[in-house]
Design brief:
This protein is α+β, with helices and mostly antiparallel strands and about 500 residues long. Helices cover about 35% and strands about 10% of the residues. It has helices spanning about 25, 40-50, 55-60, 105, 140-145, 175-190, 195-210, 250-265, 305-320, 320-335, 350-360, 370-375, 385, 390-395, 405-420, 465-480, 480-500; strands at about 220, 235-240, 270-280, 285-290, 295-300, 425-430, 435. The longest helix has 18 residues, at about 195-210.
Length: about 500
Amino acid sequence: MFPNSSNLGRPPFPPNRQQQITFFNKLPVNIPPVLSSCQEVVDAQFNFQNAVLSRTLLSGNIATIPAVTPQPVSYGNDSPVRRSDASTSFRGRKRLSGQSVPHDVKRQRFHSHNSETTVVNQAVPSPEERRLSFPGSVQSPVFCARYIPDLTGSALPLQDNLFPYPKETTLPVAKDKLSQQVLDLFQVCQQQLCDLNRKELCRTELQREIQRIFPQSRLFLVGSSLNGFGTRSSDGDLCLVVKEEPVNQKTEARHILSIVQKLFSTKLSRYIQRPHLIQAKVPIVKFRDKVSCVEFDLNVNNVVGIRNTFLLRTYAYIESRVRPLVLVIKKWARFHDINDASRGTLNSYSLVLMVLHYLQTLPEPVLPSLQKNYPESFDPTMHLHLVHQIPYTIPPYLSRNGSSLGDLLIGFFKYYATEFDWSRQMISVREAKAVPRPDGIEWRNKFICVEEPFDGTNTARAVHEKQKFDIIKNEFLKVKSTSHLIVLVALVFKIVMQMLVIKPAGF
């Protein structure tokens, strides 16, 4: 149904072990990788991008925004870097004599508008392979990315070996100015393949290092990076699963995270920056990966985050209007400073659920309740090693609602400004309707109630001040017309374009 959902962001589990209940105690610590080196990942990625380069240039597609090129930092220590047997075209910042780069691609990289057509290797490399291993390893693909290999080479996109290649999704057709603006903004801002690859490479290597301390653990990429609603500026979210049973977040999780923080601060300090343990309800370690230049949040055994990642990923791809609409609303909320849970406003997860709920509650729904229609597929007791397969198995939803993206965007603001009863109702994607607010202690004195689809908690609990709630509601009320939205989306688009301007790479 959509590209490569089967194996993204999670360690591979051998098929002959997938029915084992106690799978964390049964699986081998090191599974041989499919690829022999990280250079093959980079070469395949570049060759795929180069294959669409000429078509992109001719089409003038606005999605061809150059990737941000961070400062070149390679994994490893002061010793000479090890290289794989794979041939490399460029080494370091300077070209070798006799090598050249076409003038039109020397300064920037172009990417397909379809950002998830290939998948990097998720296997846990064995110690012998040394594929981008953390001390003294091969050169980082981010380091190599300043120059593009020979465009004459050809390679097929990397594909998942266990599942057939699914049909790619298409974007809706824009029939009015506002809808076209929504599509333009979406294509500029959506997470690109290179963004996902950088996060995935970091996940792979962190898992290897963490497994030296917790041998049976697995590290999952979760959240917006994988659920289909990520942007080019999205941080990375990681879930470290140390055992199948629940973990006490106040005691055991904090102890495990303190060990991880120490690992990051000592052995991995050359490429992990600012590791900081935040003791929230679900404690996390925040850090920055110097190689990928991505900020990460790492939690322990918050397995509901793994489940809802693939639930949202299914919603993202069963209907072509969902992803553009969600991304533009996230940008709108960020533009108006109401998309920051740390400051008492809405987190991105709540915003996504609000959009899905609205699309479910239209007189002619754009989306169904997946949990109602496919209860076995989204069973909250399903073992984690099966969850990643679910999005691939759900067919597209054929809605009879033919509303344009512009009409749906206007309807979203109207619904939450005038129709939804904030004081009495709770947003429920699981039920595909607004339901009466619960009377439990978690829901009292909360101004916005958004049900988490699996564990039933309030995802919008950060909005606990009336002043912040009034600010949020007033932003919905301000959107009064199509012309107002056209101006607003154009302004957001202009700001995003300015932020994405890339300075030429130096030699």
